[in-house]
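Batch 3, record 17
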Amino acid sequence: MTRQAPASDADLLFRVFNEVGIIAQLSSTAFERVMPEGMTLAQFTILNHFVRLGGRKRPSDLASAFQVTRATMTSTLQRLEPKGLVQIVPDESDGRGRLVEITQAGRAMHEDCLRRLAPLLDDILAQAGRGPFAAALAPLAEIREKLDRMRD
Amino acid sequence: MTRQAPASDADLLFRVFNEVGIIAQLSSTAFERVMPEGMTLAQFTILNHFVRLGGRKRPSDLASAFQVTRATMTSTLQRLEPKGLVQIVPDESDGRGRLVEITQAGRAMHEDCLRRLAPLLDDILAQAGRGPFAAALAPLAEIREKLDRMRD
DNA sequence: ATTATATAGTTCGACATCAAATCATAGGAG
DNA sequence: CTCCTATGATTTGATGTCGAACTATATAAT
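Prediction for the assembled complex:
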């Protein structure tokens, strides 16, 4: 039902990356459609990080945590800060660095996002069940880890 | 090894979408780093479509085939056409429509891309093996299919 | 101390992407 | 035939993303 067996290993990889690309696309736009006006997945991901782990982080540490360039992180932080969702202060111990932390408004926004996301996740679970997700998680984590390591 | 079991179904979905997002990011930038100057994954994907299936397609059909908006397809075609990789002609049977087809230069570019991609795929296979890809393909296809259907 | 190299952050230009608005043509209802 | 709605394509404005170039500070080498 899911088509024929791949003709080669290259073909297999091609198909996996293709599915991954489409799912990333569909899921991120579905997420953003239910989020509060102006919030994006990239911005939410940063708020989520601080809600889970707390503390302060340098922009470059956030960049490597999320596998984006420092330039990308600069850009995203420049949208979060004016909205008052994060606060950025100079790093006293390093004249080059800055430190990012979440604000109360940021926590509230995160809560709001989670509330709005819940029905969407329920919908997806109702449609697909947890089966394919449970089956996909471990192999995806392994692929991600290897690709990640290849970058260095 | 791959962390703890998810605390909830929502958490499971979260993690899968997170892995998918990172893999999509890493793979597309890895692809683009080996491609000829100026070629992107989005552009290659279109050439690939025509090499595999031939014929002519309307932009809106391409858009739905690749799960992007018509606006996105317009933008990508506007980069391919000036490079002479595709040709766009008016649709005689519909005054609104246009028809896209690949050119000889487009086929040559596609060949070149494939040649450059091969070592990268070999690299990935050497690092990760085909195992995780084979394990991930079917569940990913199922997830994609369900998400896809939810859009309508 | 001076110089060289590395690192943190930003800026810039390019591309992909979306949503919303717009324009043109097609097709159907009266 | 006229009007209304649907559809194909484009434009516009915003965001995320990259790589490359740049500024400033830190660290190491001599």
